[in-house]
Amino acid sequence: MSTSLVASTHQLRHYYGQEETKKIVLKDISFSLHAGEIVILTGPSGSGKSTLLTILGCLRTLQEGAASILGFPLADLSLTELSKLRAQIGFIFQSHNLFPSLTACQNVQMAGELFPTPNRIIQKKSIQILERLGLEHRINHKPAELSGGQRQRVAIARALVNKPRLILADEPTAALDRAASGEVVKLFRQLVQSGERAILMVTHDEKMYALADRVIHMEEGEILVR
Ligand SMILES: Nc1ncnc2c1ncn2[C@@H]1O[C@H](COP(=O)(O)OP(=O)(O)OP(=O)(O)O)[C@@H](O)[C@H]1O
């Protein structure tokens, strides 16, 4: 396994609310994620898992402590730099936010278009990953014409098409049947094999546990097991 650091935090704290409603939800979180690793984040509902994922994904502002993603300390970045960094992170969240007016293929291509790659290559890659995820018959369908599990697979294809170095996932296989979730597990394994990228995910899927290098357990905003 490579030792290059993909993401790290040092004494990260996060609060919601203000004054009398202010509540701490992340308490001095310090951890590192290295290239080549698949790490699972567990913990009861409300323990702070999603908050941590969204901070690492530059979707939520860093409040206290330090976090560094792909070598960039988040506190030092401008909004433009943060959005460039965000484009290098693959997100798989439960609310998949597909564009309703675009087909499955066009939704995946949108992610590819963030980079200066010729359109035909992006289209080819988008089709390849959709096929890989068993959606070869749904490439030109719009989200409303797809089942929940198919929409989830389009969202996974969109998150992975650029082969991001950091992949953040919240229950990526929850809406999938056995075959589709098996395909996602294989895809994740292949993605980290090169030793260039890392995956941090919240999951209850046993197949993912078999794949993981480490499990981080959170309770009430703290990391209990490293
Ligand atoms: N936008 C918000 N405003 C106020 N409080 C929030 C907000 N989002 C989350 N919280 C609270 O912060 C705490 C941590 O929530 P978070 O969603 O990070 O936990 P979680 O471990 O991901 O939970 P789950 O497994 O249910 O998704 C919870 O007490 C939650 O109620």
Automatic annotation (TrEMBL):
Per the database record, which ranges form the ABC transporter domain?
10-225
Q: Which cellular component appears as one GO term in the record?
A: membrane protein complex
User: Which CDD domains does the record associate with it?
Assistant: ABC_MJ0796_LolCDE_FtsE
GO terms assigned for molecular function: ATP binding; ATP hydrolysis activity; transmembrane transporter activity
**UniProt KW keywords:** ATP-binding, Nucleotide-binding, Transport
- Return the SUPFAM superfamilies for the record: P-loop containing nucleoside triphosphate hydrolases
Q: Which domain of life is it from?
A: Bacteria
- Which residues does UniProt call coiled coil? none
PANTHER family from the UniProt entry: ABC TRANSPORTER, IMPORT ATP-BINDING PROTEIN
What is the protein's name according to its record?
A: ABC transporter, ATP binding protein
Q: What is the lineage of its organism?
A: Bacteria, Bacillati, Cyanobacteriota, Cyanophyceae, Synechococcales
